[in-house]
Amino acid sequence: MPNSSSSTVAVPVVPELPDAHNPRKWSTLKRWYIALVIWNFIAPIDMTSTLYAGGQAQIQEEFKVSHFVVTLGVGLVNFGFAIGPLVYAPLSELYGRQPVYIATAITFAAFSLGTALAPNIEALLIFRLLAGALGAAVFSNFGGSLSDMFTPDERGPLVALFTLVLQGAPTIGPVPGSLMGQYVSWRWIMGLNAIWGAAIGLLVLFLPETEPGKIARTLKRKEEKDREDSEKAIGVSVLVPDAPRKLDLWVKSLLTPLILLFREPIVLATSLYHAFVYGLLFILLEGYPYVYQHTYSLSLAKTGLTFISPWIGNVFGVLVYFGYFKQSYVAAQQRLYAENARLPYPHPNPTLRPEARLPGVILSSLLVPIGMFWFAAASNSPHVHIIVPLLSGVPVGMGMTLLQLSLANYYIDLYPTLSASVLAANCFVRNMLATWFPTFATPMYENLGGRRASFVLAGIGCAGVPAGVILLIWGEKLRGMSKRAAKEREWDGQRGGWVDELRASESPSGTHGDEKASA
Question: Which residues form the Major facilitator superfamily (MFS) profile domain (predicted)?
Answer without folding.
Answer: 32-479
